[in-house]
Amino acid sequence: MALRALMQKYGPAAAISYSSVTLTFFSTIYATLTFGYDPSPFILEIVSHAAMAGLDLKPWMTDIGALDAAGAPTDKLRHGSTFVTTMLVTKLFVPVKLPLAAALTPAVSRALRRYGVLGKAR
C-alpha cells in the first residue's frame, strides 16, 4: 500500500506510524555509524540488488557524490558526515519501512481512537 493511500484511509495515524518507523530506522543507523560501522559494502549491495530488480541507483548515487563514475564508494561516503550518510541509508530502506508502517497503521489508529486522540472509538 502506498503512503498516499494510507494517508487517505487512516489520516494522521498513517503519518505517525511512518514517522515512528523512519525515526527508529534513522536512530539505529546513526548509532551504528557512530560506533564505527563502514556502510560502503552495504550500500554497494543495495545498489547491486536494485540493479538486478531493474532500478538503477548509480546515477543518483553519483549525482550526490556517494559513488564515483566507476561505481566505487567515494571518500565522501566513507568519511563524510554521519548525519548525511544516515539520511542516505535511511532513504534506501524505504521499501522496508513502507510495508512495516502499513502493517502498524491499523493498530496505531485503533489505539489513538481508544485514547480519544483521533475521536471516538467505534
UniProtKB/TrEMBL annotation:
Keyword Ubl conjugation: no
Gene Ontology cellular component terms for the protein in this record: mitochondrion
Transmembrane spans: 12-33, 92-112
InterPro entries: FAM210A/B-like, FAM210A/B-like_dom
Keyword DNA damage among record annotations: no
Any matching Pfam family: FAM210A-B_dom
Domain of life: Eukaryota
Domain DUF1279, chain residue ranges per copy: 3-106
Keywords: Membrane, Transmembrane, Transmembrane helix
UniProt protein name: DUF1279 domain-containing protein
